[in-house]
Amino acid sequence: MKTIGIVAHSFEGAALCFLAACREGAEHLGPHMHPNIVMSAVPMGLSIPGWESNDHAAVAKFLSEGVQLVADAGADFYVCPDNTAHIVLEQIAADLPLPGLHIADVVCREVMMRGWKHVGLLGTRWTMTGPVYETALKTRGLDMLVPDEQTREQLNAAIFDELCLGIFNASTTDRFLGAIENLKSRGAECVILGCTEIPLIVTEANSPLPPFDSTRLLAKYAVREAVSERPISAKSGWLPV
Question: Are 16 and 203 contacting, i.e. CB atoms less than 8 angstroms apart?
């Protein structure tokens, strides 16, 4: 069985991914069982100046450190439960010591399986306007809808000032649900929760659109990879999903 490496960026999203992987493991292996999991947690605060200044090389330094830590701990592959981090991970994937599971590939495969074409996306401002999901959806012939600029800034602030710090206010939940309702009115058939903390407040029970929980989906695919007999031949880059 393969060892999963979880490379944390924000701790709330990484903690949820870890719990989801353990619970998914029990579904495959029985009670109290899951694949071996190692985790690194280089503080996201070290990377935030790089994000704010668009200095991807600075962010890459810390993400690379996180991948190296799980490689040194014995991981066979890594997952990073942070959608925004994939902007930089895509740039450095070939130089990392382990292959990874790409969060957008995982999510988009699930969207394709459901047959929807018009996809809403929520996340940080970098995720909503950046290339990761735009490319992943476009290459699969899917349309992407995001909130307007004012709403994007409000959601971004809520993610960093509240959700990433474990603060969950009812008014913030309402703001996210309102953004989803607006995407629905514009033709979205489903919504990607493209920030790994959003599933802490938006669920299938309260979302106006069917949600795709990027955190738990990444954990599910990580466990599937870990328990599969498929060998990992790539030394870096991205694993097929």
Answer: no
Cα 64 from Cα 46, distance rounded (Å): 13
Rounded to whole angstroms, how far apart are CA atoms 13 and 83? Answer: 10
- Residue 216 CA to residue 190 CA, distance in Å, equals 16
Q: How far apart are CA 180 and CA 208, in angstroms?
A: 6
Token pair in block for residue 28: 């495959």
What domains are there in the chain, each with its CATH number?
Answer: 4-102+216-227 (3.40.50.1860), 104-214 (3.40.50.1860)
| Residue pair 117/175 in contact by the 8 Å Cβ criterion | no
Handedness of CA 166, 169, 170, 171 (dihedral sign): negative
Q: What is the pTM of this model?
A: 0.95
| C-alpha separations of 143 from 57, 94, 139, 178, 192 in Å | 30, 28, 10, 20, 12
The tens digit of pLDDT for each residue in 181-235 reads 999 999 999 999 999 999 999 999 999 999 999 999 999 999 999 999 999 988 8
3-state helix, strand, coil in the chain (%, to 5): 55, 10, 35
